[in-house]
Each structure stands twice: as structure tokens, then as C-alpha cells.
Amino acid sequence: MKxxxxxxxxxxxTLVEKPDPKAAPGEVVIDVKAxxxxxxxxxxxxxxxxxxxxxxxxVILGHEVAGVISEVGEGVTDFKVGDRVGVCPSTPTLPGxxxxxxxxxxTTARVEDxxxxxxxxxxxxxxxxxxxxxxSYHAVMVAGQTKAGMKVGIIGLGGLGQVGARIAVIAGAEVxxxxxxxxxxxxxxxxxxxxxxxxxxxxxxxxxxIVDFAGFxxxxxxxxxxxxxxxxxxxxxMGRLEATINTRLLIVKAVQLVGSVxxxxxxxxxxxxxxxxxxxxxxxxxTTFEEIPAGLDRLHEGGVTGRxxxxxx
Length: 313
Description:
This protein is an alpha/beta fold and about 325 residues long. About 25% of the residues lie in helices and about 25% in strands. It has 8 helices and 16 strands. The strands form 3 sheets. Strands 3, 5, 6, 7, 8, 15 and 16 form a 7-stranded mixed β-sheet that branches. The chain has a 6-stranded parallel β-sheet with strand order 11-10-9-12-13-14, sandwiched between helices. Helix 2 crosses helix 3 (about 160-170) and helix 2 (about 125-145) crosses helix 7. The two termini are about 15 Å apart. The relative contact order is 0.16.
């Protein structure tokens, strides 16, 4: 197998060749067909704080994985060779952090972490539906407790935010969004967002929930400022690993500030079902296996609207 290997922060990814993986008991080998590129991997390349999370080094990055099972291990009965699956990344053996991930032509997964891909859903959508889709769904619907008729704010309309905003629209919420990118703001209108602003502080002051998919510190602080009393702020993005907030407003407004990380296989399945229904069709920006390092550079520079996904040849 070949893949893009991470060694440590500050060092570029290197293309390596390794022996093909074998399926351990309770696991499968997956021929990777698509792998999503995530800002988390940009963070790993630039911020040493990520080294506490990436417990296996060197490791092939890539935690948004979809492909075809090419081998099943002992004890695997519910899946077979040829099944199309996505991998839920919220697992103790997190791909791209603990075990070799999807920036490769092959990877492995525990059977309890894989989800069948509906026949009418592409590998590109399935890959983005793992971390990007799962995390967005969990943040909006589970951590955010979004219901029909609620007013919801979304900060950041990138790979996660555009999905989260659309999921809130599908759920029947009145959705507002904020993004510094003109292209992203235009996308918001296309997916049913009622109004898009450049800054969270421009949001209406009666929002029930604000989900911060950007996480640049100032966005978190701004959300606390504008959320209605008793409202909920869900923190997802980690554009910066620290934030300075107004604790007076947090207290006197009784703001519920909660963190949301990942999700589970049920969230992945929910996203796949929305894909299959045709209601959720996020913007996918395809790239190639060879262009994965350049794609991460594009993410760092803010040059991607939508979710960047490497399509394996």
C-alpha cells in the first residue's frame, strides 16, 4: 500500500510504501475509494497541540474514509468482501490518529465502526459524511437539540458548517449564518439559510442555538454575546485552541456553552439517509490522491468552499 505519512508538526507529509494491511479478528480491510480532507489535519501539521491526540507517529493521516471491503477478519459475519462502507472516525482506534488512515489506497477498520453506504450515494459523499457529516449532524441535532421552529445560527459555512446549516434547514429551523468568505455566503443562500452575515455579532438577538464551526476564539466570544438569554452555544471548530470569553455575559444570560466532538455510527447513518433522500447534497470539491498535500495547503489558505475530497484512482 502507499499513503501520505505524518511524522510530526512542522514537517511535510511524505509519500511512503508499506506492506498491505491484514484484517485482524473483528476487523476489515478497505480499499479506499475516497478520503475527505479536514482542517484537523492542517492543524496537526502546524500546531503541536495536536500531538497529544495523534498517539501513533508516524501515521498515515485521513479520518474521512469510504471504500470497498477487500478482506474480512475472523468473526466478521455482518459484512462481506465487496460491501461499500464508510468508517465512523469517533472510535478508540481513530483512523489517521491511532491507526493508518484514508490518505492511502488501503486501510483497516473495526467492524463496529463501519456503516453501509446506500446504493445511490457516491464514495465522495460517503467519505464526507463520516467526520464532516457526522460531526455536523451531531452538533446541530444532538448537542444543539435543534427542533422545527427554532432559530439557529451557524458560524462558518465550510465543509462542516454548510452541512450543519442544511441539516438545520431540513429539520425545520429558521437558519442564519456568518462567514467571512463571499463565496461561502452565496452558498448559504443556495442551501436555504434565511440570511448570511460576515460576522456573528450581526446575528439577530433571539437565536435559540448558535453552532460555531469556525472556533477562532472571537467567534466563540461573539456567539456568547448575541445568543438569547438561556440559549445554547455549541462549540465545534478548533481554528484556535484557546478563546477569551465574557464570563459575565455567560453567567447573567445563563448561556449553555457546550462542546461537541464527532458523533457515532448512528449519526453517520442519519447523514447517509439524508444523502439517499436527496435532501442533503453538500458541495464536494474533488481532488486526487497525489494532490492531498496541496489540498491541505489550500485549506490552510482558505481557498476551498465546500468539502475537499480526494478521489482514489
